[in-house]
Write a structure and sequence with these properties.
globular; 4 helices; TfoX-like; TfoX_N; Yope Regulator, Chain: A; Competence protein TfoX; 31% strand; six-stranded antiparallel sheet; alpha+beta
């Protein structure tokens, strides 16, 4: 998937999660990061949406068969267990996608922001 296609997909997810302009989409290695108030809570890489997880979300995602983000570096597989692929049934349900995105944001540490100050505004029709 090209970097432009990845960015378009990230913008589409951002639009589903929150009103336009409330989530920044930035370059992130070979993908696009989803950032709110300076905190990266997710990213799109190779056509897949990944969200930051806490222990409870990790268990839920694993129960749904999701796997953590991983990549190859220096001839070895690196697994990043802070970010998991979002299950298809979550992506297909706007309210559930919003709820998981909000939880991902709460699981993301921020500098100078209380986690309660970084909640996403949700507009299910927009």
């Amino acid at each position: 998937m090209s970097s432009e296609a990845t960015r378009r997909l990230a913008l589409d997810f951002a639009g589903q999660i929150a009103p336009a302009g409330s989530i920044d989409v930035r370059r992130f290695f070979g993908g696009s990061a989803l950032v709110r108030n300076g905190a990266q809570f997710g990213f799109v890489m190779k056509g897949m949406l990944y969200l930051r997880v806490d222990d409870a979300m990790r268990a839920e995602f694993e129960a749904d068969g999701s796997e953590p983000f991983s990549y190859r570096a220096a001839g070895r597989e690196v697994t990043v267990r802070r970010y998991y692929a979002v299950p298809a049934h979550v992506i297909d349900d706007p309210a559930l996608l919003h709820a998981y995105s909000q939880r991902a944001l709460h699981a993301t540490p921020t500098a100078g922001h209380k986690l309660s100050d970084t909640m996403l505004a949700f507009n299910p029709s927009g």
